[in-house]
Structure formats: structure tokens, C-alpha cells
Amino acid sequence: MMAIDIFSQMPSQLPEQYRILSSEELDERIVRAKEILGKDLVILGHHYQRDDVIQYADFRGDSLKLSRVGAEQKEAKYIIFCGVHFMAETADTLAQKEQIVILPDLKAGCSMADMADIEDVEESWEVLQDEFGDTIIPVTYVNSTAAIKAFVGRHGGTTCTSSNAREVLAWAFQQKKRILFLPDQHLGRNTAYKMGIPLEQMVIWSPGSGELEEVNCELGEVQMILWKGYCSVHQKFTPEQVYRVRERDPEMKVIVHPECSHEVVRLADCDGSTDYIIKMIAAAPAGSKWAVGTEVNLVQRLAQEHPEQHIELLSTTMCPCLTMNRIDRPHLLWTLESILDGNPINQIEVNDETIYWSKKALDRMMAVS
After folding, report:
1. Which residues pair with 80 in a beta bridge?
2. Residues of 266-305 as b/e, b for ≥16 C-beta within 10 angstroms?
3. Are strands 100-102 and 78-82 parallel, antiparallel or unpaired?
């Protein structure tokens, strides 16, 4: 069974009884369920999660940090991950054997992670091996499915985060001449460019056409093979938005996530991971002005937590992670009360072989960074 097959075997339709509850009833029953479950439960909330849900999180963070934290809560039998499916898979990969990982809504996926389908990756790997020989090492962003992490692990590669991507790529180039970077082309391009690799020596692999795109050098000079994937949220930020902010207020600093396009990252004052953005703003002096290019729930939360600064979304339109926003209080309550009823729903289970090779990839990353 593929790691992802479990999703098709679990109930995902929210019962009507939870849809009709008032806001007050939802809050009261969530609080009561948490109190009853006590140390048997830990709720993990990703930074992009909506406020009415993340208020119930025992821990906040990015996907990998939260997965580690969940595994460390050895008294917790149940780990509820308020995020998206690849995050819950990572949590199950790292969890203790006896821990049960639950995703409140199984339809909370990640379009970027889904752009690297395991069958497409395996087929593409064969084609690229024929073209370039044994000169490629695969590296995947942790924002990928367990199956992709396992593929990378089996082929001697590793994972990376947006915080340690540069260190990981430096290690990977010591192993092989070329890197196949999955699934987000923009993090790969932006990181490699900062390392001094010319854009001309980066190409796009399109699994749809089965061909290389944006080839601007001899194939022998290619160093980065970027999978044709992207984050739909971070692609909503444009150079025009940066120009507009600076024209309106020259004192405004622009800070963006490296999943944004190369043009946006180059125009920004600084770029970095979600954790980097949070820390930069937290350390900034009162009166600072920031236009932030990342998910809107986080930007709004930063503005609330730092009223002494002016913080706004870089885009003039809302940029929520729509799949992350599928996790709401009715789904959270449903999962909590299903545990109390002795019949947990929406459990995420990654098979043993996938866990083994995924951990290989994750362990290589940890050894590097």
C-alpha cells in the first residue's frame, strides 16, 4: 500500500451535527474534550493555520518542527496535526509506534506537494539518468509527500527546509555534479542563485511534457534540475506589488518567503523561512514598517502581536492557504470527540518501508545541518 492510500480508506465527510453548532458551543466542547483527554493528547498548529483553530494548539511552528515536537510528547497517545496531509505524514514518520496521528480534514492537502507525484518522479528519474548518467542527487523540500521523501532516501539524497536549504545544497554538490530539486522550483532556484550558480545553469523539468525547459546552456553545464512545482500562495506576490509598496512608502521594508518567484525575492529587502520572518519582525524596533510576502493568517497574526510596528500583507488581495483553512473548529471538535468515543477518525499511517527511507533522507539532512 502506498503511504497516501490511507486517505481513500478513511471517512472525511463532516457529520451534519457539527456543522450546525454555534461558535460558543464549538469552543465549549473543544475545551471540554481537551480537558478530558489531558496528557493523552497534543494538538499541533502550523503557522499558517487560522486563528480560531490555532488558539487550541499546544505547540505552533513549521511542519518539521511540529513533527519533532509531537514525537517528543511521549505521554501523548494522540497527535492532532492542524496543518495539511504531508505534515501529518511527517509527524507519523517521526512519531512513536504507539502514537496515533490525526488530520482533522483529510481534504487538507498541499497543491505544491501534490505536483511531485511519486509515479511521475520515478519515471522522470529514469529519463534524467539516461540523459545525465549517474551525476544527479535528488533533494526534496520537506513540503513533499512521504513517498517523495522515501524516494530521495533510497537514491542517496536528502531533505531540506527553507532555513537550511543552502547548507543542504552545498552538501549535495559534494556528492554529485547535479541536483534534482523537488517539488518547489523557486526555493531551489533562489537558494542556488545565492550560492553563485548562474540562472543559465538551471533548467526546469516538466513531468507533464517529460522534457527539460528553459535550457540556456549546454546540457553538460547544467547544475540544477528544478521540478516544475510551486506554492500557489507565494506565487501571488509579484514585482509590481513591491514597486507599488516602495512608491507609496519608501520607509517600508519588504520581507518575503523564498518560495516566491526569483524576481520578487531579488527585489525584496530580505527573504527567508517562516521562522526567519517571525524572528526578523520580533527583533525589529518600534515604528518599523513591513510589507510581508507570505500566507495571510501569519501576516495578520504578526500584526496583532506587534502593534508597535506597521505590518501589512505585500499583496493587496488576501493570500490564504485554502487547503490549510479547511481545518476548522467543527473538524477539530469532530476528531476530538471521535477519540473520546473510542473510534478515532482520519488517522494518518505511513507504511514501514516508506518510514524507513524517509528517515534516511531526514537523517542525512540532520547530519548536514
Report:
1. 43, 102
2. ebbeebbbbebbbebbeebeeebbbbbbbbbbbbbbbbee
3. parallel
Pairing of strands 202-206, 158-160: unpaired
Q: pTM above 0.90?
A: yes
Q: What is the pLDDT of residues 178-213, one digit of tens each?
A: 999 999 999 999 999 999 999 999 999 999 999 999
- In sequence order, the 6+-apart residues with CB closer than 8 A to the CB of 302 are 277, 278, 281, 292, 311
Cell of 278: 517571525
Q: Which three three-digit cell numbers place residue 58?
A: 499546544
CB atoms within 10 A of CB 81: 29
**Is the CB of residue 156 less than 8 Å from the CB of residue 140?**
no
* All domains of the chain in start order, with CATH: 3-109+323-349 (3.40.50.10800), 113-231 (3.40.50.10800), 234-313 (3.40.50.10800)
Residue 77 parent element (H or E): none
Dist CA 348 CA 197 (whole Å): 39
Give the neighbor-by-neighbor strand order of the sheet with 78-82: 59-61, 41-46, 78-82, 100-102
Q: Which three cell numbers stand for residue 67?
A: 513533527
